[in-house]
Specification:
mainly beta, 54 residues, 5-stranded antiparallel beta sheet, globular
Length: 54
């Protein structure tokens, strides 16, 4: 069962089975022409294997 956690506007979390997707930086309504976020993919099988990408 997939779940989107939006309690913090600067940290969005999407959970789907063994995959956790974290978006650091949030979404701001000003400056939408240049959105900068960091996307972090994590497998629940291997917590030490995180793949961040800006």
């Amino acid at each position: 069962m997939a779940k989107l956690i939006t309690e913090n506007a600067e940290l969005l979390i999407y959970l789907d089975g063994k995959l956790h997707i974290t978006i650091l930086g949030g979404i701001k309504l000003t400056g939408l022409d240049r959105m900068k976020v960091t996307l972090k993919l994590t497998s629940t099988d291997h917590k030490q294997n995180a793949f961040p990408h800006s």
